[in-house]
Structure to design on (515 residues):
């Protein structure tokens, strides 16, 4: 086998080759002699848990960090990229998970940020920038209004704008860090079409993702990292169990905890229940004629295609959706409930974990400790004054119960990994001692190892008598975690499955087809 950075006679060298790359940050060794290759026109998936070294490796490739040792080659020639500008000059661009876009500027201004087109006299040539922006979007067959503010675009369209912006530099290679974490199914399909078009034109793409089910759809090759090392290079159609084993160092069947079967009293009862909003919103699927139950000690999953109404059902129960009122039977713990606001939901013993932890689940600049106690301010503030002792006790309880790392309540929550941020969101809601926990995409953007920890914590909470209703786009997650799966379509429940069920059976019901 030819080593990275070397070629056999007559063979073309790889577009990019990294050999023996090491990197320390203080006493932490982030990379331990890593070899990695990217060929022209290849989509190379790079997988690994948070902390595995993926981002550090790509930051070296992008010129953000310099390696302590090792070699970086482009077309077989050693290079040293001292900063991102040199990487861009070499044809390498990176799209980070947190998009470097300015929401208050329009699309055209974002595409030319830092490289504005000027008229004589140093004035901005807005018309020229908008014309050029339209050409660039048309080149990848996308129609987005270049005069719209980026802040008004969907997450999917923002991702496209970031790609088009990066393409100004990515003549050779494009690094994409978690590009699909917040996209709908349709937006993912559109993104993959763009990636295939780029690879067909010879651009090499490094694709970093936690979504293992996407790998066979888009990748040509897969490299898995763990603890700063490469632990495997496989074909994209390798069994998901093999990938999970490489990622976490243990068999895939250990990902989901063993569940207790005993259930208690009925906590949530919906019978022919629906939600009538005060004002309709395009694309918001109202719950209609829903009938389902959740008992104490039970985890119930909500399945369905995008737009089936899963998120709307959870947000309407918690009072974060549109203003309006429920009709039909809605009972919490055996009593009729009028869930018109967050206050009413919390008073009824309901907690909710949003699918957008960074947008609405956390205050990223505030400390881990302050984020944790936000749902129990009355408990830690007797007489309206914050009690440092009560706050410290509640925070210590959450840090230990959810194994949030690092165990430092003073650091900003935005500095944590995605998995630990999600643990903070969960811990924050559990501090309120709810009876019913609503979860919307609870492991979105979370690596496999952190998923296993979250699953174990949810199972433990259910064993303590908590009722859990969880919506997820990941079918293996629903099947592995839940006692029952309720399938929604067009705002209604259309099927229900108990125990281990075949994934294709659930998908058939979600799409209105016979299994």
């Amino acid at each position: 086998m030819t080593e990275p950075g070397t070629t056999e006679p007559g063979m073309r060298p790889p577009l990019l080759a990294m050999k023996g790359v090491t990197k320390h940050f203080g006493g932490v060794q982030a990379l331990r002699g890593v070899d990695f290759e990217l060929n022209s026109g290849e989509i190379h998936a790079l997988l690994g848990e948070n902390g595995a070294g993926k981002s550090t490796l790509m930051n070296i490739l992008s010129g953000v960090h310099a390696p302590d040792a090792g070699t970086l080659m482009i077309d077989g020639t050693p290079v040293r990229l001292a900063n991102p500008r040199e990487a861009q000059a070499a044809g390498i661009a990176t799209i980070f998970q947190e998009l470097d876009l300015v929401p208050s500027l329009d699309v055209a201004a974002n595409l030319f940020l830092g490289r504005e087109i000027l008229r004589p006299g140093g004035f901005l040539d807005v018309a020229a920038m908008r014309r050029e922006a339209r050409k660039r979007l048309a080149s990848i067959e996308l129609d987005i209004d270049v005069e719209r503010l980026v802040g008004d675009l969907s997450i999917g369209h923002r991702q496209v704008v970031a790609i088009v912006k990066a393409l100004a530099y990515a003549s050779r290679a494009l690094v994409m860090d978690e590009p699909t974490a917040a996209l709908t199914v349709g937006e993912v399909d559109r993104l993959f079409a763009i990636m295939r078009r780029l690879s067909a034109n010879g651009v090499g793409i490094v694709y970093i993702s936690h979504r293992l089910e996407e790998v066979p759809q888009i990748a040509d090759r897969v490299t898995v990292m763990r603890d700063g090392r490469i632990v495997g290079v496989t074909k994209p159609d390798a069994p998901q169990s093999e990938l999970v084993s490489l990622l976490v160092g243990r068999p895939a069947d250990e990902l989901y905890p063993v569940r207790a079967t005993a259930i208690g009293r009925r906590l949530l009862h919906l019978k022919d229940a629906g939600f009538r909003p005060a004002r309709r919103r395009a694309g918001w699927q109202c719950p209609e004629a829903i009938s389902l139950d959740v008992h104490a000690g039970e985890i119930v999953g909500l399945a369905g295609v995008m737009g089936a109404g899963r998120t709307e059902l959870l947000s309407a129960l918690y009072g974060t959706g549109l203003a309006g009122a429920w009709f039909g039977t809605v009972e919490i713990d055996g009593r009729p409930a009028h869930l018109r606001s967050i206050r009413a939901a919390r008073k009824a013993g309901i907690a909710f974990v949003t699918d957008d932890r960074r947008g609405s689940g956390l205050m990223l600049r505030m400390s881990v400790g302050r984020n944790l106690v936000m749902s129990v301010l009355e408990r830690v503030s007797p007489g309206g004054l914050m009690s440092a002792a009560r706050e410290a006790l509640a925070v210590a309880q959450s840090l230990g119960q959810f194994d949030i790392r690092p165990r430092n309540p003073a650091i900003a929550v935005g500095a944590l990994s995605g998995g630990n941020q999600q643990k903070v969101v969960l811990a924050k809601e559990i501090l309120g001692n709810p009876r019913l926990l609503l979860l919307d995409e609870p492991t979105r953007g979370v690596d496999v190892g952190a998923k296993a920890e979250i699953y174990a914590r949810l199972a433990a909470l259910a064993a303590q008598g908590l009722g859990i209703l969880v919506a997820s786009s990941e079918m293996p997650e629903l099947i592995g975690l839940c006692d029952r799966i309720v399938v929604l379509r067009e705002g209604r429940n259309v099927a229900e499955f108990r125990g281990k069920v075949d994934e294709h059976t659930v998908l058939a019901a979600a799409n209105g087809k016979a299994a």
Observations:
- The chain has four domains: 1-91+170-251, 98-165, 265-349+435-515, 359-433.
- The two ends are 45 Å apart (CA to CA).
- The chain has 18 helices and 22 strands.
